[in-house]
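dumping this here before i forget
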Amino acid sequence: MNKFLVLYEKSTTGYGAYAPVLPGCVATGRSLEETRQRMAKAMEMHPSAMRDDGDPIPELSHFELVEEN
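structure:
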C-alpha cells in the first residue's frame, strides 16, 4: 500500500485537503470526515488522470500521519 502526505486545512466553510506530491489533487468538504473521504477518492483517481494527460507520476514516498488538534 502506498502512503502519501495529505495536508488538511480548516476554512470558514469547512475543510480543504491536498497532497503535495500529487499536483492538482485536492478535495473540500463541510466536515473533516467528508473531506477525508473525498480526498481518498481523489487520490485513487488522480494518477490515472495524470497518466492520461501525459504528466509524469511522482515517485512514491512514505510518510507518517501526524495530526495536531
